[in-house]
Amino acid sequence: MKLTVVGSSGSFPSAESACSSYLVEADGFRLLLDMGNGALGELQRHIGLYDLDAIFLSHLHADHCIDMCAYFVARYYRHDGGRCAPIPVYGPEGTEHRLTTAYADTPSASSMSEVFDFHTVKPSTFEIGPFTVHTERVRHPVEAYAIRIEHEGKSLTYSGDTGVCDALDELARDTDLFLCEAAFTHGKENIPDLHLNGREAGETATRANAGLLLLTHIPPWTDPQVNLADARAAYPGPVELAVPRMTYEL
């Protein structure tokens, strides 16, 4: 598997990064995890506009899904060969309605489904292309899912947005790469069931016996170096910051 960080900013884009979006590739198949603010433009640095094979949306907050409205425009009004065939989109219950509402001028209430083949995510195990994926609901104010992606003996786990929870610990068990949010700063924000801080991300990786811990979803108003230091203090393994355009081979 190959992971490319498309965007890693939390809450809103920074001057350096789009919001959450991560490209996972194997055997010529391209799966995008989330498509937050600014992600569609950045994605085109890495692949063609119509080269995605599937999309997974961890939850329906704008910083994880809102560029799907722009992608709808690109697929629905394609100028070089007509409308695109539907691409699988996996998301929480109500994903189609959420995106249709966000794009208020959609030609009709069913237009999104003409270019997106919506699938409702629940805690389960299923296949997306060459990947075996496992999804678990995590702790966030809206319905939100973490995902574990496995291929040829390797695994990548993405937390999505979450507070501390057993489900994430188990999903990330022995994973090779743990892409984990760290939006809060230890000792500054303390809101249960919303986000992790750097220390909590490190503690989660330790409990899970994860491999590389890759911190992401750090908002522009949070110092990433503080969260990196906090995670390293709590986790003895390798820890890095998710930086746009970085790639990781598994």
Description:
Helices cover 22% and strands 28% of the residues. It has seven helices and 14 strands. It has a seven-stranded mixed sheet. Strands 7-8-9-10-11-12-13 form a seven-stranded mixed sheet. The model has no long low-confidence stretch (mean pLDDT 97).
Give a short synopsis of this structure.
The protein is of the alpha/beta class and 250 residues long.
Present the secondary structure layout.
Layout: E1 2-7, E2 21-26, E3 29-33, H1 39-43, E4 54-56, H2 62-65, H3 67-76, E5 87-91, H4 95-102, E6 116-120, E7 124-128, E8 131-137, E9 145-151, E10 154-158, H5 166-171, E11 177-181, H6 198-208, E12 212-216, H7 224-234, E13 239-241, E14 247-249
Parallel strand pairs: 3-4, 4-5, 5-6, 10-11, 11-12, 12-13
Antiparallel strand pairs: 1-2, 1-14, 2-3, 7-8, 8-9, 9-10
Helix pairs in contact: 6-7
Structural class: alpha/beta
Order of neighbouring strands in the sheet with most strands = 6-5-4-3-2-1-14
Q: Sheet with the most strands?
A: 7 strands, mixed
Give the integer mean of the pLDDT values. Answer: 97
β-sheet strand percentage: 25-35%
N-to-C order of helices and strands: EEEHEHHEHEEEEEHEHEHEE
Which radius of gyration do the C-alpha atoms yield? 17 Å
Shape: globular
Intertermini distance: 5 Å
As a percent range, the share of helical residues equals 10-25%
Total count of strands: 14
Uncertain residue ranges: none
Number of helical segments with 4 or more residues: 7
